[in-house]
């Protein structure tokens, strides 16, 4: 049973780590595209900013759902029978 706990810890670390990397890359690309589009059309800056913050929240929400699932498997693992 000890090897199952090791795999769960490894999987939780991968879920959190890969989710963090994906969220950081996504927010970075989105921020660069926002700055590029705001420089091209400054009159649309307010609308673009609203959409950018909405998307930032959705990207962070997806990452936090992954963290929640990883914590569920780390602390209340349904695969380990006691």
Could you list some keywords that capture this structure?
F1FO ATP Synthase; elongated; 0% strand; 82 residues
Concise synopsis of the structure shown:
With 82 residues, the chain is mostly helical.
Structural class: mainly alpha
CATH fourth-tier homologous superfamily of one domain: F1F0 ATP synthase subunit C
CATH T-level fold name of one domain: F1FO ATP Synthase
By CATH reckoning, the class of one domain would read Mainly Alpha
The overall pLDDT average reads 89
User: What would you call the shape?
Assistant: elongated
Please indicate the percent range of residues in DSSP E strands (runs of 2 or more): under 5%
Radius of gyration: 18 Å
N→C terminal distance: 10 Å
Main sheet makeup: none
The CATH architecture term of one domain is: Up-down Bundle
Low-pLDDT runs of 5+ residues are none
Share in helix = over 70%
Helix and strand sequence: HH
> Number of DSSP strands?
0
DSSP summary: helix tally: 2
What does this protein look like?
With 82 residues, this protein is mainly α. It has a domain at 18-74: F1FO ATP Synthase. The protein is built from 2 helices and no strands. The protein has helices at 2-40, 45-75. Helix 1 (2-40) runs antiparallel to helix 2.
């Amino acid at each position: 049973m000890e090897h199952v706990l090791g795999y769960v810890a490894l999987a939780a670390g991968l879920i959190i780590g890969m989710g963090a990397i994906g969220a950081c890359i996504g927010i970075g690309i989105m921020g660069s595209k926002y700055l590029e589009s705001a420089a091209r059309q400054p009159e649309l800056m307010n609308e673009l900013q609203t959409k950018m913050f909405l998307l930032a929240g959705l990207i962070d929400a997806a990452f936090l759902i992954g963290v929640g699932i990883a914590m569920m498997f780390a602390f209340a693992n349904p695969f380990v029978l006691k």
